[in-house]
Amino acid sequence: MIRRVLFKKYRKLNKKEHGLNSILHGPCRRVIILHEGNSPTLAYFHQSIAAQFKNTDIILKDGHDLSHLSIQPDDAIVIIRFISSHWQARIEQDIDKLSRIIYFMDDDLLDPAALQRLPKEYRKKILRRASAQHRWVTSYCDDFWVSTPYLRKKYSHLDPKIINPTPSSMLLEHTPMLRVAYHGTSSHRDEKIWLYDVISKVMELCQNVTFEIFGEHDIYKLYRNTPRVTVLHPMSWDNYLAYTQTQRIDIGLAPLLESAFNAGRGPVKFYDFVRMGAVGIYSNRAPYKDLVTQNVNGILLENDNASWVNAIKTLAYYHEKRTQLAQNAKNTAMLLL
Questions:
Q1: What per-residue confidence (pLDDT) applies to 14?
Q2: CA distance 258 to 305
Q3: 193 and 163 in one domain?
Q4: Which among 19, 156, 184, 231 could bridge 220 via Cys, Cβ 3.0 to 4.6 Å?
Q5: Orientation of helix 268-275 relative to helix 319-335, angle to 10°
C-alpha cells in the first residue's frame, strides 16, 4: 500500500498545476546540471544534455556538494536521476526564478515493478531514493527526458523527450596506464591498510598510474573512493596462477610489517612479480633482503610512507629503469632453477 501511494502514476509534470510560476520553454541564461558525483550517466549524457541549450553557459553541480549555489533569474536546472532533500528545498526557495526544471533518467526509476528482480539491497536503495523524490518531481518539474525508446513509450503520457548518449572522444580512447599492484592475501590485512596512504598520495601525484589490490569488503570500502584503484576479490591459487600468467603489471608492491607471523614468510612475491614482468618494491627485511640486491633486481625500502611514494613515483616515470630491474629479477629467478 505504501509503495502504491508513494509511486502513484505520474499524470503530468507541470508546476503550473500547483500554482507556481513557470515560463515553459522560455529562454534560459544558464543551465545547471545537477548530478551526483562522476557516473556513467554524466559521462555519456553530459554533452547531449548541454547540446539541447545552444549558446548557453553550462554549470555542473555535484549534488553531494552542499555549498551555496546562487540561482539567477532565467536559469534552467537539469536533474540527473536523483535529487536529495537538501536540493529540493534549495530549489524551492528560488523556484520563481527558474525558466525550466527538467528531470532526466536513463533507468526505469519510477516503477517499483521494474525493480523486482534487482538484488535486494540495490532495489531497496532505489525504492527509498525514488520514493523520496517522487512527489517533488511531480510538483516542480516541467519536462521529462529519457534515454531509450522503451522509456519514452512507457511514459508517453508525460510526453518525454529522448536524449541519446554522446560520449566524448576521451571515452572512446584506450589510454595506456602504468599498472601497480599489491596481491597480498587476507593474512596481509595490516599491509593493505598501511598502503592506503601511500597509494592515495601516488594517485594524486601520478595521473598515469592505476593500482589493483586483492581484498574483502573492508578493503573495498577503504579504497573505493581512491581514483584509479581496482579491488579484486580473493582467488584460489589455481585461479590466481592463471590470472597472473595472463596479466602484466609494471610495479609490484610487497610491504611486510613487523609481526611474529610475518617473520616466517617466504619470498614468493618476488616470483609472482617475475611471472607478471614487474619490478618489485619490497620491505627491507627477511625474506626479501636476502634475495633482492638494491637497485639491481628490485627496490628495498624501510616501511616509511614517503619512501614508498617516492620510489613508486620514480619508477613510474623511468621506463628504462623499470625494464632493466624487471629483467634482472627474471635473471635471478632463472639462476635459482
A1: 55
A2: 15
A3: no
A4: 231
A5: 120
| Whether residue 147 is found in the same domain as residue 197 | no
CATH number of residue 82's parent domain: 3.40.50
Q: Look up the domain containing 197 and give its range.
A: 178-335
Phi-psi region of 10 (alpha: psi -120 to 50; beta: other; left: phi over 0): beta
pLDDT tens, residue by residue, 101-144? 999 999 998 888 888 888 889 889 888 998 889 889 988 999 99
* DSSP 8-state code for residue 50: H
Say yes or no: 160 and 308 in one domain: no
Domains held by the chain: number: 2
Quick one: pLDDT at residue 2?
A: 39
Band of pLDDT at residue 69, cut at 50, 70 and 90: confident
Considering the domain architecture, whether residues 211 and 90 belong to the same structural domain is answered as no
- Helix (H), strand (E) at residue 24: none
Residue with cell 532505489: 126
Q: pLDDT of 149-196, one tens digit each?
A: 999 999 999 999 999 999 888 788 877 899 999 999 999 999 999 999
Residues 151 and 186 in one domain: no
Q: 279 and 250 in contact (C-beta within 8 Å)? A: yes
103/133 same-domain check: yes
Strands 57-62 and 30-35: parallel
